[in-house]
Design a protein that fits this description.
The protein is of the alpha/beta class. Helix content is 47%, strand content 17%. It has a seven-stranded parallel sheet, with helices on both faces.
Length: 228
């Protein structure tokens, strides 16, 4: 497959447990399986899920005789993030940034750097507050881009569909009405999703019973961009 112009993808939400790491890894996996060079950055110093997931993915792909794992960096500041992303991007690599659940300088820098921003959110009453905190940041990012004569990032959202929650409809309506944000759909957050990222989307697509994983891949592919 022909190599395309690299992009910077930022996955952000101002609250933990919103499936940010899962979605960041999903984007990285799609790019890697499309033979597009990709590097993942993690700005959350308390999160070990990224490292564990990437190690498991590397082992799973080796067992299947597939290619190497996805390069991964943990960065400690906005300055370090900007330097590292610039270096990898100029080398022709797609950059996926998994942000900490905060509005710190690194998160804002990651959103300013992005060509594509993904806002994952799970069902729950508190998540409404997280979305409301993200709104002003997105607005500032768009205004900053326009003032600099730069094309604003494309912004997408996904809703993680957890069981035993009553606020999914309200969250979905809020996302759909979010100005400048395209709602991609609901993610069935389950072990199937985790395993399809870890073991490879192509591997899981061979199984007819894994339709949810295929649907999830198509939603993320919309954020990555058709024709990758």
């Amino acid at each position: 497959m022909a190599r395309r112009k690299p992009r910077i993808y930022t996955v952000a939400m101002t609250k933990g447990g919103q499936t940010k790491t899962t979605q960041a890894l999903g984007i990285a996996a799609i790019l890697a399986e499309a033979k597009q060079p990709v590097v993942v950055f993690d700005t959350d110093q308390t999160n070990t899920n990224m490292t564990k997931f990437l190690r498991k993915r590397t082992l799973a792909l080796k067992e299947q005789g597939e290619g190497p794992g996805i390069p991964f960096y943990q960065v400690n500041s906005s300055e370090e993030l900007q330097r590292a992303v610039q270096k990898e991007f100029e080398a022709g690599r797609n950059c996926v940034i998994d942000c900490a659940p905060t509005t710190d300088a690194a998160t804002i820098s990651a959103m300013l750097l992005a060509d594509v921003i993904l806002l994952p959110v799970r069902q729950g009453a508190v998540e409404v507050e997280a979305l409301e905190r993200v709104g002003p940041i997105l607005q500032a990012v768009v205004i900053s881009a326009k003032k600099s004569g730069i094309k604003p990032p494309q912004v997408y959202s996904l809703l993680a569909d957890y069981k035993n929650t009553l606020t999914g409809r309200e969250i979905r309506e809020l996302l759909i009405n979010f100005e400048g944000v395209e709602f991609l759909g609901e993610v069935p957050h389950s072990e199937v999703i985790g395993r399809c990222i870890r073991e490879g989307f192509a591997f899981w697509e061979k199984w007819p019973s894994r339709l949810r994983a295929v649907e999830y891949r198509e939603m993320l592919a919309s954020a990555v961009g058709r024709g990758y």
